[in-house]
Amino acid sequence: MYKLYYMPGACSLAIHALLNELNQDVELIDRNKASDFEKLGSRGMVPVLVDNGQVIREGAAIILYLLEKHKNQMLPDGGLEKARFTEWLMFANATMHPAYGRLFFIGKTLADGPAKEQALNAASDIISTLWTSVDAQLTNSTFIFGERISVVDMMLTVYASWGVYFPVDILMSDKVKRMIAAVQAHPAYSKAVADEQVASQ
């Protein structure tokens, strides 16, 4: 059984949903309640996955590890299709995630006032632009790679949920909102959300 160190609503939720999708048993460990978390070399961040004593860090690395280990239809075998998958995985992990991270940083470090409001609005404008790239990819499909859900859709849905923490407008098209709603209704994802709520009580 895998051990997944998580925080409720954090990016670790996508890993949890992926494990559900792959029909893998997982022991959830709340990062804030774990006495051994710092010993894992986590750099203070989630997700952290432990597989048979081996510690794996960084979301994208964990995702690729799981997809290569367990039979699935998400990860292409190779060639241009695999490159496109990796491109979107990195877009989610290394472009969209840090863009939302800037909002959290501004929210925590700047005092309330015009400068903070300006910084938050500038950061939200960048995020809105990134969502237009997602919209373009969804021109003829429900999900990023067609009509079959992928972990990239799950990651983007987690990030989209973070917008409620900030007093800014992040613009998303109807196609993006439909994708997010479809992910939220997907059994593997909705189970992960429900299980984390119970585990964190």
Short description:
This protein has helices spanning 12-21, 59-69, 79-109, 114-137, 151-160, 174-185, 187-199, and strands at 2-6, 26-30, 48-51, 54-57. The chain is of the alpha+beta class and 201 residues long.
CATH architecture of the largest domain: Up-down Bundle
Assembly state here? single chain
Low-pLDDT parts are none
Q: Determine the strand fraction and express it as a percent band.
A: 5-15%
Overall mean pLDDT stands at 94
The best one-word shape is: globular
| Helix residue percentage | 55-70%
How many H/I helical runs?
A: 7
DSSP strand tally: 4
* CATH top level assignment of the largest domain: Mainly Alpha
Alpha-carbon distance between the termini? 22 Å
Structure explained in plain terms:
Strands 2-1-3-4 form a four-stranded mixed sheet, covered by helices on one side. It has seven helices and four strands; from the N terminus they run βαβββαααααα. It is of the alpha+beta class and 201 residues long. It starts with a strand and ends with a helix. The protein has two domains: 2-72 and 188-199, Glutaredoxin (3-Layer(aba) Sandwich); 79-186, Up-down Bundle (Glutathione S-transferase Yfyf (Class Pi), Chain A, domain 2), CATH 1.20.1050. β3 and β4 (54-57) form a beta hairpin. α3 packs parallel to α5 and α5 (151-160) crosses α6. The chain has helices at 12-21, 59-69, 79-109, 114-137, 151-160, 174-185, 187-199, and strands at 2-6, 26-30, 48-51, 54-57.
